[in-house]
Amino acid sequence: MAKMTTSKYPIKATFLKNEEICSLPPAALAMVADFFKVLSEMSRLQIICSLKNGGKNVSEIIEITELGQANVSKHLKVLTQAGIVTRTQEGVNVFYAIANPLVFLYVILFVILSLHN
């Protein structure tokens, strides 16, 4: 079975068989559902995509996504709390970056699945 850790999303799915995924405890499935909820918002996907080439500050993210400052800040907070984005303060500047580049694989899979239907 998958290795369990103490992070917010403790399932390390290096390899899970279908029957193992379906037999995960409800708490683990709830964490997976929460992760997908975070990724299921268009503005958050835009922000994630804006970070594909490295860390950016809020102003740069706003320029790339064309979203409002309050909206970007709200979604960055959600993405940071979910562990998808990291927040680093350098002097007066705050930079956001993707915590784990595997998140882009999820986005690609979502695109493929949505186009398939």
TrEMBL record:
Domain of life: Bacteria
HTH arsR-type domain mapped to chain residues: 24-117
Manganese is among the record's keywords: no
Pfam families named in the record: HTH_5
Keywords assigned by UniProt, alphabetized: DNA-binding, Membrane, Transcription, Transcription regulation, Transmembrane, Transmembrane helix
Transmembrane segments: 94-115
Gene Ontology MF terms: DNA binding; DNA-binding transcription factor activity
Entry-linked PANTHER family: TRANSCRIPTIONAL REGULATOR, ARSR FAMILY, TRANSCRIPTIONAL REPRESSOR SDPR
Protein name: Transcriptional regulator
